Amino acid sequence: MRYLAEPFILGALKRGRSVEQFLGPAGTPERPGVRWVEVQPAQGAYEVYLHTALDCEPLTGDLDSLPPLFDDEEEDFGLLLATMSEPLAAMHAAESQTGAALERWVNQSMAGDEYHDYVLAGRSATTPDDQPWPTPQSSAARSATAETISADGLVENGSDRSSANDLE
């Protein structure tokens, strides 16, 4: 089975391993791209990154080898969407900000297999389980919802600060 159950997702993150999810197409017909989200442990917290890349290598399953979708992007690290103190909170942040589905997370580097399947399926308009691909939020909405955790464990969301427990 390719997808991880929630206890395995949380276990991987607590062991210092990233989890990721292929989110499907991005860009335009003239400049097609793909998106995926990653949750990775980082210095006692969990960071959520959104990656977008040019869909230009039909034979690869290595998403990290694809060039950035837009020339001004630094795809080495992706777009940091949230930093959370707990792995489950990071998962919820990833899901709420990108449309990721709890039942479609995979181990680190396995989202490339999802991309490969997407290419083999003719870049289908639906996920493997016949659901529409998640749609990205606008960059303004993403900026407004990006969250970080301060050193004292409070979530900073723009100028608001609240306890990380308030997010759930």
Characterise the protein shown here.
It is a single chain. This protein is α+β, with helices and mostly antiparallel strands and 168 residues long. 23% of the residues lie in helices and 29% in strands. The protein is built from 4 helices and 8 strands; from the N terminus they run αββββαβααβββ. It has helices at residues 6-14, 87-98, 111-120, 139-145, and strands at residues 19-27, 32-42, 45-54, 79-84, 106-107, 148-149, 154-157, 160-163. Strands 4-3-2-1-5 form a 5-stranded antiparallel β-sheet. A 3-stranded antiparallel β-sheet has the order 6-7-8, with no helix packed on it.
What's the short version?
With 168 residues, this protein is α+β, with helices and mostly antiparallel strands.
Descriptive keywords:
single chain, 5-stranded antiparallel beta sheet, 168 residues, 29% strand, 3-stranded antiparallel beta sheet, alpha+beta
